[in-house]
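Technical note accompanying the year-one report. For the benefit of new consortium partners, we illustrate the data format agreed upon in the data management plan: each record pairs a sequence with a structure-token string. No post-processing was applied to the example shown here.
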Amino acid sequence: MESLLSIFLNKKILIYGSGKSGLSTLNFLKNKSEVFLHDDFKRNSTKLTTRRFIIKNQFDFIIISPGIDINKCKLSWFLKKNLHKIYTDLDVFYSFYRNDCISITGTNGKSTTCQLLYEILLKHNYDVKLVGNIGRPILSVKDVKSKTIFVVEASSYQLEYSKIFRSKYAAILNISPDHLERHKTINNYVRAKFKILNNDLKNSLGFINEKDLLTIKELSKRKIKKKILKVNSRSLGHVQKKIDNEYFLDEANKENLSFIIAISNKLKLKKKIVFETLKRFKGLKYRQQTIYKNKFLTIINDSKSTTFSSSVSILKKKLNIYWLLGGMPKKGDRFDLHKKYHSNIRAFIYGKNKKFFISQLKGKIQYSNFNNLGDALKRVFTIVNKKDLLKNTIIFSPSAASFDSFRNFEHRGQYFNKLVKKHLNG
């Protein structure tokens, strides 16, 4: 393991992708090795090297950014030829640091679980850093001490090409079909997620959801060195009474909560501090976020939802639901909600991919379709205003990617909030 400390020192390294991850890797390695940066779409920059230069040179390593799909990028053939040289920023981090990491992956709930763990550890006065897919590249962190703990949100894109990264504590929250346009098959996606459990570290622990079918199925095929702890949400009753926070009432957030409690127990954290932090937690922006509430109406912004599975839990827990959905559907995604909930929901589908969503909901849920989100929301408010003596819930949970009309889910969430404000003030 000690040999890993020097593998990225004094080498010739290509960094592919000039987003946050690529630039942080460049800045981290530039005084340690001969480093070159390439991006398919950014030209006329003195920082970037050309395709011609890349083809004519030999590199010891290629550090690939999470957003790069080697099957679709402009140097696809080159990357496939040099697949054995491809690593990630997680690998670079692990070769230079030996800090304890708590790494979280899963299809849904990663950011919320990571944020909660971070806040709980902060309240315990740990020197803790929150990094990874949540928005801060792991190599961008400064002032790392020997006792610094990293909470790492790890996506399948990051894990896919990772070769040496190890984490003392690692969790797979859940797995449902997602990102199949990149991973091609559900098996490839599951294998990428399971890389987080690769470990030969002393006293390391893995946490998995004992109710998650894809996770349990994959676990049965493997011999994993890390000790595995199976987590369930059945015994959370006493915890929920202690924290008295309605945010943790739906299934998805109960699942997140069960992992928080399991990891906190293994870290021997103080229950009083854990419960106090959970009691105050209001959720992250655009993740089942209540943006308006009165006696008769609740409005929830769940713009982060990019698959049906990420929307299902909230559709089970509210009354008289007006569900706004639409965007770029994920390959292989399917609507799977028990029919006992169907009559409580009316769907308002928007955007140019209406046919996909109609095919999933037809014969199950009453729906209408609209050209855009603004028109759909306008119609919802028309209906809700006529039923203001009932308790109604407007849920914006798109169940699709945002890139057809927005930069990302945050941009989409901001736009929805503006629309709501306009209607409420009008």
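Partners are asked to follow this layout when depositing records. The domain at 289-425 is CATH 3.90.190.20 (Protein-Tyrosine Phosphatase; Chain A).
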